[in-house]
């Protein structure tokens, strides 16, 4: 059991949690303010980048499909027959503010992790507290990898599919600004958090809520869910679906290995007592 030099009451924990949220919010606002000064680049090159037919992801997928012999792949003839419009009086102001806050959250994620670690560290063993730097570095790396995966893979494939899809020639796609940006922000942040799966499994295994046997048993169901998800968010071709599904399943397999290592260490420690 972890030992503390000072026992904290429930109210003390609430106070620590409150300050965690305050400091994290301040960090997000500071970084969001910094993002405001480069907002033109963020909007034109990042947010609206996937709307450009020459976006790097479309070129990459075109080369991949051609490599596998699909010379006339649909992804090689990207068209974006839609416009983005603002229909709310204060829509663009809200768009600017929340975009900057989102950038602040992504950029400040390592600091938020550090605050979370300080909050949970009193409940850890002394030897576990030494892993603070490794926790911050690995968790941040996984998060940023997930954000990049969401932005360069999930987002452009979604924009391409929904932007080019037409149920009838009489229907013109005119997407609301909030709808378009919400999809991008949700895809990137959700993927960033999804890539934290190995870290989550580590702590769940430490708490005894998950075992490697459980994860292996439900591997086939996880694969089915991932394939269904890939089919929904990618264009209707097998290559794109496989490219999306592979990293997620790799994370799942890594999580199984991590869970197994944790269980072995727990068994070893229990036998030495």
Automatic annotation (TrEMBL):
Major subcellular location class: membrane
Subunit composition and interactions: Forms a complex with TatA.
What HAMAP family would the database entry show?
A: TatC
| Family note | Belongs to the TatC family.
Taxonomic source organism: Flavobacterium azooxidireducens
Subcellular location(s) of the protein: Cell membrane; Membrane
Q: Which gene holds the coding sequence for this protein?
A: tatC
For this entry, the protein name equals: Sec-independent protein translocase protein TatC
Topology class, membrane: Multi-pass membrane protein
Q: Which UniProt keywords apply?
A: Cell membrane, Membrane, Protein transport, Translocation, Transmembrane, Transmembrane helix, Transport
Outline what the protein does: Part of the twin-arginine translocation (Tat) system that transports large folded proteins containing a characteristic twin-arginine motif in their signal peptide across membranes.
Please give the InterPro entries that the UniProt record associates with this protein: TatC (IPR002033)
The record lists the membrane-crossing segments as 20-43, 95-114, 134-154, 187-209, 221-236, 242-263
User: Tell me, what's a Pfam family for it?
Assistant: TatC
């Amino acid at each position: 059991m972890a030992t503390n030099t000072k026992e904290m009451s429930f109210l003390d924990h609430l106070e620590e949690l409150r300050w965690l949220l305050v400091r994290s919010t301040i960090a997000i606002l500071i970084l969001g303010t910094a993002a405001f000064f480069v907002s033109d680049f963020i909007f034109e090159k990042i947010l609206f980048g996937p709307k450009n037919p020459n976006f790097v992801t479309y070129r990459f997928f075109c080369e991949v499909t051609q490599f596998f012999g699909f010379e006339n792949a649909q992804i090689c003839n990207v068209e974006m027959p839609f416009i983005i419009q603002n229909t709310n009086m204060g829509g663009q102001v809200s768009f600017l503010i929340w975009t900057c806050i989102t950038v602040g959250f992504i950029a400040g994620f390592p600091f938020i992790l550090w605050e979370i670690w300080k909050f949970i560290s009193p409940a850890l063993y002394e030897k576990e507290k030494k892993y603070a730097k490794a926790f911050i570095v690995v968790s941040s790396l996984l998060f940023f990898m997930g954000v990049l995966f969401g932005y360069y893979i999930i987002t452009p494939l979604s924009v391409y599919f929904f932007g080019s899809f037409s149920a009838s020639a009489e229907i013109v796609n005119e997407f609301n600004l909030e709808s378009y940006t919400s999809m991008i922000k949700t895809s990137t942040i959700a993927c960033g958090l999804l890539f934290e799966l190995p870290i989550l499994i580590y702590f769940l295994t430490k708490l005894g809520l998950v075992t490697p046997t459980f994860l292996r048993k439900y591997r086939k169901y996880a694969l089915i869910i991932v394939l269904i998800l890939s089919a929904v968010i990618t264009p209707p071709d097998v290559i794109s679906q496989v490219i999306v599904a592979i990293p997620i399943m790799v994370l799942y397999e890594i999580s199984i290995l991590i869970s197994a290592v944790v269980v072995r260490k727990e068994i070893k420690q229990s036998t030495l007592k």
